[in-house]
Amino acid sequence: MFVIVLILLGLCFGSFINALVYRLHARKGHRYSIINGRSMCPHCKHELAPKDLIPLLSWAYLRGKCRYCSKPISRQYPLVESSTAVLFVLSYLFWPYELVSTENLVAFTFWLILLVGFIALTIYDLKYLILPNRLIFPLAIIAVAGIAAEVLLLGGIAPLTTAFWGLIVGGGIFYVLFQVSAGKWIGGGDVKLGFLLGAVVGGPWAAFLMLFLASLIGTIYALPQMLTGRLEAKSRIPFGPFLIIAAIIVQLFGSGIIDWYQNLFSF
User: What is the pTM of this model?
Assistant: First the structure.
């Protein structure tokens, strides 16, 4: 039953993410307000009725076309909705702690909230090659609130210490690269995202693993593209999505990976 609830929540939040990304980029007055704005067709600007907003089902029923102007609706919409639902369920199935205590349930809830923001950042960076402060800063506040809740529930500063060292490693390395290269090797948004994700995954080992996996995933993506000529050495590649994918892997599987690595090289 809980998995079904997570699927439904994931689909709904996926629909919210699509609207959030569109409105953040548009930013053209009250009509595009995140809070008060109404969902509309990106082509004809016709406001959508409730029957047009059912995640996945509306897109499938309309065969991927606007009800009012018949122009195609991007496949981004069903992909983001379904991906969010899948990530919600995977987070539950592979959550590294038993969801029986209050502190673990609170941590899981904050993770799902942050996950919505991370998916929005991924889509925004892929589409517009920028990580907007209007997403990163609220997510930082949510992350701090989650860490504070853990401190209060556990009655110790261990979560704060872990987050601090993760922040130092996750963002500190990127900050040095940004300063040394005067912003040519890595963008300022990636630095801020590194600080945020480092604090979320927590601890120096987890943060190092996140940076390694992000670089590995980025290389796996870029190298074939460069060999086939689809990318050039000077092409801009959004690094934020690789960081976020790596952070999700570390959050769900990081402890097992780190333990395996330490046992492999222990004598």
Answer: 0.91
